[in-house]
Amino acid sequence: MVVIDGKVCYINKTGNVVISTGLNYDYDEYGWANSGETEFKNGMACVYGPGGWGSINTAGKVVIPFQFDKPYFFNEKGLAQVFLNGDMNYIDTKGKLIFPTGYSSIGENKDGTWTGIRHDQLSHAGFLHSEYSSYDLLDAKGNIIKTNVKTSAGKNYDIIALAQATLDQYG
After folding, report:
1. What is the reported pTM?
2. pLDDT tens per residue, the chain (171 residues)?
C-alpha cells in the first residue's frame, strides 16, 4: 500500500500502480499499516473507508463493507476477528458475522468449540467476576451450545487469559 496524491493505492513489484482505491489516506488511531492488515492476503486487503474498516479485492472493488471499528486480517481458516460497535466477533471472507452480538471476547477452544464472554460477564475492572463466573459455549457456526456455563475462575485459566489478553490488546 502506498499513498499517491493523498489517495491509497497498491503497486506491483515494479512500482506500477495496479489498484487506485480512490480512498483518502486518513491516518486514524490504528494507522494504515497496522501489522500487515492492509496487505493483500487471499485476494483481499483490509482498508479504511467511509464508516470504518472493510476489505477490497485485487480489482479494488469493495467486497466487505466499511463498518468495522478496527483493522483485521483473515486466519488460515478464513476467519477474521473484528470489532463492531464495541463487540468482538468473527467474520468469514464474505463479511458475514459468525457469532451472535454482545461479546467482549470470543476465542476458540482446543476441541473446536468457542468460548464467548459477554459484556455483562466482565467486572468493571475488566476481569471475570470474582471467584465464580460464567461464559457461553458456542459451536464453530455461531450457534450457542450452552449459555451461562459456570466456572471457578481459579480453575479456568484459559478463560481468564482470553479475557485479559483481549482487554490488554484492544482495551
Report:
1. 0.72
2. 787 887 778 888 898 888 887 776 665 544 544 444 567 777 888 888 888 889 988 888 999 999 998 888 888 888 999 999 989 999 999 999 999 999 988 989 889 999 888 877 665 445 554 444 678 899 999 999 998 887 654 444 455 555 555 555 544
Residue type, 127: F
